[in-house]
Amino acid sequence: MQINRRHFLKLSGALAAAPLAGKKKTAQASKLPGPSADSYGCLVDTTLCVGCRKCEQACNERHHLPKPEESFEELTVLENERRMDETSYTVVNKYYPQQIGSLTWRNRPTFVKFQCMHCNDPSCVSACIVGALTKQPNGAVIYDPQKCIGCRYCMVACPFQVPAYEYYNALTPQVRKCTFCFNYIKDGGLPACAQVCPREVITFGKKSKLLRLARWKIKNNPGKYVDHIYGEHEVGGTSWMYLAAEPFERIGFPKLGTKAPPRLTEAIQHGLFQYFAAPIGLFVVLGGIMWATGYLKDSEKGPAEETEEKGGV
Ligand code: SF4
Ligand code: SF4
Ligand code: SF4
Questions:
Q1: Cα-to-centroid distance, 235 and ligand 2 (Å)
Q2: Are 113 and 193 in contact (CB under 8 A)?
Q3: Which range marks the domain in which residue 304 is found?
Q4: What is the pLDDT of residue 108?
Q5: Hey, whose CA ends up nearest to atom 6 of ligand 3?
Q6: Mutation test of ligand 3: which of 55, 90, 183 has the most ligand atoms closer than 8 Å to its C-beta?
Q7: Ligand approaching nearest to the C-alpha of 202
Q8: Which residues are near ligand 1 (CB < 6 Å)?
Q9: Residues 103 and 178 occupy one common structural domain
Q10: What domain count does the chain have?
């Protein structure tokens, strides 16, 4: 990849600013709202979903995302497991019943809608050294493209492999993921997917109420659900939670611990930034000055002189 001087100096500036960013981040992390029962969330009852993809379409339209090659009416796409990407903040997948010995868990497929889980203590927020991702008091984890330096640490850190990157966009690439329709819920509106779902699979509301509803459903429908609310405890809790009729690892969910990954990694990461970012920043700035000086010298030479140095004729 060709790196020009402007790009290099921009990168140098970002790296030199890393110690400040790290400090700002530590302060911000201590202010995070944490797993508040009063923040918003969604409860997804997978037993009700029929895989109609109307939620995918509503999300696509609300966020003006590129139209897919095949229309949202096309249900054969459900035959292959899909992941969210930079053009789809949410996808619905279809899981066929599994035969275990003579037992079958269900007699019909399970459809599951996936999107960012809006974790209570998000790894993506913790990994972002410039504070481009933030957890909002209402529960949403949102992204500020103005702050993003494109390092993509958030993509590596997310335990659900959610954030996607606009690799095709050479000039202004962004990280893309579900926004929890932040601009709508902050004004009292609903997430587009929850609003459109014809089967009321997605219940939007305060997390405390959603958890009560989930427990009520499990208790009052013996045999219908597994006794597990996915997202109640996983990775320290998530704003989006799920009910299902079969174990979650059979329907596309990763088996994760209850400890929030940032609590395990943040101390190490912030320690590293504290001690290494200043020397690295200085090194990069000095290297940048040397490189820029060499670059200017080189550009003063004629093309013949350059060719000669490279061993050409
Ligand atoms: S709109 Fe509702 S029923 Fe249709 S796929 Fe999405 S969650 Fe399932
Ligand atoms: S699911 Fe991934 S992208 Fe979404 S909040 Fe959690 S860590 Fe961040
Ligand atoms: S909450 Fe909004 S952004 Fe997230 S999946 Fe639903 S419609 Fe898309």
A1: 10
A2: yes
A3: 1-31+267-313
A4: 86
A5: 193
A6: 90
A7: 1
A8: 49-55, 92, 111, 113, 197, 199, 201-202
A9: yes
A10: 2
Look at strands 175-176 and 240-243 and give their pairing. unpaired
* Distance between first and last Cα of the chain: 26
Residue 184 is predicted with a pLDDT of: 96
**Is 88 a pocket residue for ligand 3 (Cβ < 6 Å)?**
no
Q: Which atom of ligand 1 is nearest to the CA of 193?
A: 1
Q: Residue 249: which CATH number?
A: 3.30.70.20
Q: Would you mind telling me the total number of residues written for the chain in this entry? A: 313
- Do residues 140 and 163 both lie within one domain? yes
Same domain, 124 and 174: yes
Please report the beta strands in the chain, taking only residues with DSSP state E, as ranges in sequence order.
Answer: 40-45, 91-95, 99-100, 103-104, 110-114, 133-135, 141-143, 164-165, 175-176, 202-206, 240-243
Same structural domain for residues 235 and 165? yes
Instruction: Chunk the chain into consecutive blocks of 10 residues (it has 313) and report each block's average pLDDT, rounded to whole numbers.
Output: 40 42 40 63 98 98 96 97 97 86 69 98 96 97 97 96 95 96 95 98 97 98 96 97 96 94 62 50 48 46 39 33
Give the pLDDT confidence of 183-214 residue by residue, as tens digits: 999 999 999 999 999 999 999 999 999 999 99
pTM of the model: 0.77
pLDDT digits (tens, 9 = 90+) for 140-165: 999 999 999 999 999 999 999 999 99
Q: Which of 149, 189, 202, 210 is nearest to 18 (CA)?
A: 149
Give yes or no: residues 130 and 279 share one domain: no
- Which residue has the CA at smallest separation from atom 3 of ligand 1? 49
